[in-house]
Amino acid sequence: MITGTSSGTAALDSGTRELTRVLVLFSLTGRLTGERTALGTLVERFDFGRFALHLKSSEAVLPMPVLVEDVPPADLGLPHGDHGLALSAVEIAVLATPRGDVTLVLDCEFEGPTPTDALAAWLAATCFDRDRITLGGRPLLEVLRGRLTAREPLAFGQNVHQLVFPGGELREQLLAADADQRSVRLNEIVYRGRMATTEPPNLRDHGTTLSAHGRGVSVHAGWAGHVENGLTLVALGMISALAVLQRTRLAAFEAMRANEQAMARSPYEIRSLISQLSAEVNELQLDLAFGVEAYVDSLLIPEMVMEAFQSSLRDALGIRDSLDNSARMVERLTSVISARSAALDAELSERDDRRDRTVSVLVAIATLIALPPTLLLAFFGVNATNVSDHRSIFSAQYLPAYFLAWVPFLVLAVIGYVRIIRTGRRSGSLLTAPTPIPAQRPPTGG
Questions:
Q1: 3-class SS string, 9-21
Q2: Do β-strands 64-71 and 86-96 pair in parallel, antiparallel, or remain unpaired?
Q3: Helix (H, G, I), strand (E, B) or coil at 254
């Protein structure tokens, strides 16, 4: 089981284990707040030995324990029984990253012998039938939902990694057996009894220690407890990063679909769509930076033992390629949003120009309309011999005055209207794509 923090005394990285230990890491969908709780930080809660100094400097990016609880071994139930294995201790831990991504850890120790075929069956059950795991007769996730407050309902994700730390007889068999026997045992454990090959996957054998892993199971024999916890942290980071990558890929597709299917009919709706898509892209970029990149390099634990396992597991999971592809998808989505925003700005600018021209024309027309009545009122208001007190202002006698007052301004209005129309046509032609000029063929020599 995971023990408390060591006293700081020097300790070897290799060690002897009496009981086989298995840690099962489940990625969970849903979000939890990765804030400091009464449980303390990961380094304060668990023993990382000489790696603790490195981890203390990186506590800001480490997952935080939000639930750690020892449960009676008899309470943990598998859908097909215990496969002949006897649990001696079970600890449940729920960890949340600063971005809120959740990983469930089952830390189990077995008493008595742990044959490879029984261990493979137990690993297969906890992986492929994880939805049917119970705790105290109730579904495991149902119990967790009652003890945790999540932003979204917790559910099992796609990713599982199981770390096997052989103890007792199994440890001796793996370390002392010849190459052929060891390969058979390792392949049975790593592939959960479903596949057998002659070469163990990603094997590193140092005589007193041994490590081998596939995508979903890793076997580490002969290591001390603090190294086991360090290897578990590496695997936890990989599983969490892979889950974030999968979520990011789906979110990028959803943003692309929202952009394609948007029925925006006004600049306001388009601006709202751009704001929404931009916020989603910002979240995707944060997820890639702080949910993936922060866990896929050797900066957390810059030690050769951890780096070798991290690099090998990262390659087996294909995280680097997936990260590069997802980053390119988000980058292109950003380009699409920027292009839509630029098109909107151009459209709004053109609309503002049209509106300004319309207002200017209306003001000019209003001024033109107001001038003739002003002149006529001034004409009738003067005390002149041409104005008779006995005639109406609508008398035919005054038609020349009306003609002189209105015709020049009407001519000016017609000329201005024609010029505005021509200007609009010229500006419209600037918005159309120019006709490409066919390339001329170079002259050929005689």
A1: CCCCCECCCCCEE
A2: antiparallel
A3: helix
Note the pLDDT tens digit of each residue in 160-194: 999 999 998 999 888 888 888 888 888 899 988 77
3-class SS shares of the chain: helix, strand, coil, % to 5:
55, 15, 30
Q: Provide the 8-state DSSP code for 65.
A: E
The whole-model pTM stands at 0.73
Structure tokens belonging to residue 384: 């002149």
Sign of CA dihedral 144, 145, 147, 152: positive
Residue range 213-248, pLDDT digits in tens: 989 999 999 999 999 999 999 999 999 988 888 888
- 254 Cβ contact partners less than 8 Å away, ≥ 6 residues apart: 280
Under 8 Å CB-to-CB from 8, ≥6 apart: which residues? none
Alpha-helix runs per DSSP H in 70-197? 116-128, 140-147, 168-176, 179-190
CB atoms within 10 A of CB 171: 20
Give the residue from 223, 193, 199 showing the smallest Cα distance to 211.
223
Q: Is the pLDDT of residue 1 over 60?
A: no
E-strand stretches of 136-239? 138-139, 155-165, 204-205, 210-213, 217-221
Report the alpha-carbon distance of residue 120 to residue 225 in Å, rounded. 23
Residue 309: Cβ-neighbour burial (10 angstroms; 0-12, 13-18, 19+): buried
**Pairwise CA distance, residues 234 & 241, whole Å:** 11
Residues facing residue 135 across a β-bridge: 76, 138
- Tell me if residue 290 falls in helix, strand or coil: helix
| Mean pLDDT taken over the chain | 79
State the DSSP H helix or E strand holding residue 93, giving kind and residue range, or none if neither.
strand 86-96
How do the domains of the chain map onto residue ranges? Answer: 20-237, 243-347, 350-386+393-424
DSSP string, 384-429: -TTS-TTS-TTSGGGHHHHHHHHHHHHHHHHHHHHHHHHHHHHHHH
Q: For tokens 């994700």, what's the residue?
A: 157
